[in-house]
Amino acid sequence: MSQKNAAPSPRTRVKRVHERGAYDRTTIDAILDASPIAHVGYIFEDAPFVTPTLHWREGDHVYWHGSAASRMIETADGAEVCLTVTLLDGLVLARSAFHHSANYRSVMLFGRATLISDPEAKEARLKAFMEGLVPGRWETLRPILQKELKATSILSMPIIEASAKVRTGPPKDDEPDYALDIWAGTLPLQISTGAPVDDPRLKPGLCVPEAVRGVKIG
Amino acid sequence: MSQKNAAPSPRTRVKRVHERGAYDRTTIDAILDASPIAHVGYIFEDAPFVTPTLHWREGDHVYWHGSAASRMIETADGAEVCLTVTLLDGLVLARSAFHHSANYRSVMLFGRATLISDPEAKEARLKAFMEGLVPGRWETLRPILQKELKATSILSMPIIEASAKVRTGPPKDDEPDYALDIWAGTLPLQISTGAPVDDPRLKPGLCVPEAVRGVKIG
Lengths: 218, 218
What we know:
2 copies of one chain form a homodimer. The first copy, chain A, has 218 residues and is of the alpha+beta class. Chain A has a single domain, classed as Roll (Pnp Oxidase, Chain A). Helices cover 19% and strands 38% of the residues of chain A. Chain A contains 5 helices and 11 strands; from the N terminus they run E-H-E-E-E-H-E-E-E-H-H-E-E-E-E-H. In chain A, a hairpin with a 7-residue loop joins strand 5 and strand 6 (101-112). Chains A and B meet through strand 2, strand 3, strand 5, strand 6 and helix 3 of A and strand 2, strand 3, strand 5, strand 6 and helix 3 of B.
């Protein structure tokens, strides 16, 4: 496991409930790796935009991709972005409205995004992306074409300025409220996978690969 | 059901894969209501920030809340924000890497956020928030205190400039690729609730309320 830290900067230092904040790469990487969904924030014509996208991590970088014609890709290249990954792990139901909360894991990552232009590097990144989700699938696919690599843009951002924020555990009520006749506790939430659904045009005789059944997210 | 539309503006008009775009309030409201998690984007010292938060909708407005001392709340009041809600409904596994995709529902909502200052209005909004998640719970709680209302800030944004983007269904492969011996299909994903967990300090004899068991998200 990495022992590196992403040093807290003024904007990554967790201000609210600071005991929930973490800056170690082990915590940050685990959260980035747990969810394929990220929300990428960027500024376009002086206004904030937040675009959901799939992302992946390799070593000290995160990557996300999109059509070469996408506004998000065009705007984010070379620009300051904030990439946030969040997993909602549960509702925290306290004895007062005020102490209701949520259990969650989140990472905010700041930096400048850079477009990857070399086709071989792009192919290697896309392969790593797919291998992370469905190991072994890449080699079974119809090989990627040069025109497809051209039509796909990949953005890269180093994991330098990042913070994690995590809440776990039961509600924290005001001391006198524990004596009240009110049920309190947590309602766990998680992302679950359903049974794989065959493409209606699937060639007869093909079975769901084990790697697809084995996908776990969260 | 609402028949209102959120008119597409230059920034809400879905550029990429425009057949996935929708601007009718029925679609937009259903997505906003399906997930309690939103990602709020705002600009702080010329850089984009994306903060995860719980949100709720009442009629033509969305709301989110936080500590009165939160940077997100302070910064967003009166400022342009982009609030994005995303549900990842599945992985779409095609016969080529290029046509891999995701099924999802997302809404991007643009506008100016406004702080609600009237304590009675704040209490009514918080009650509606909780009733939306766990119906009936509000009345069972220790009543909210004035100092708690004071410490809680609520931001409001009208649903005027919004777009939804939705993908459903099987992969769309290149026509010749359907003949290949490659499994293709979708892997459904959903948010599932686990069994409620009692607070370790729960008063003996209290049972999990039916409304908590009935919470459904997604």
